[in-house]
Amino acid sequence: MNRVGARLFALRRVFQQKRNGGGHGHAEVNPGPPVTYDYAPIPFQPYNKVIGELNSKFNVYLAIAATAFVASFAYALKSDLFIYEAAWRPPKSYRERK
Fold first, then answer.
1. Which residue of 4, 42, 51, 54 has the fewest CB atoms within a 10 Å radius of its CB?
2. Measured between alpha carbons, how far is 91 from 98 in angstroms, rounded to an integer?
3. Of the candidates 84, 88, 85, which has an alpha carbon nearest to the alpha carbon of residue 96?
């Protein structure tokens, strides 16, 4: 057990992180100039015009998604994907089964 413990302790030293910033001997990477609001976009169109165009586009997306959801749910019900008859209803009499 003593040899196993010593080997585990040595393995721990291999994977231990350096405490002095990596210790690879190279310089820090320059991240560039400080970030300011100079590169922020400046609005150049009226707010109501832009929001109207975007809302009409998003309403079309919503209508298409809702139609696709209703169609897929109706198809799932028609093809008995949820197994409604077998799972939630009590079993029919032997004479009524097809």
1. 42
2. 12
3. 85
3-class state of residue 14 by DSSP: helix
Whether the model pTM is above 0.85: no
State the DSSP code for 59. H
- Return phi, psi of residue 77, to 5°: -70, -40
Both tokens of 75, joined, read 């198809």
The residue type of 83 is I
Is residue 82 classed as helix, strand or coil in its secondary structure? coil
CB neighbours of residue 27 within 10 Å: 5
pLDDT at 44 over 60: yes
- Strand segments, DSSP code E, in 6-63 are none
Domain ranges of the chain: 43-98
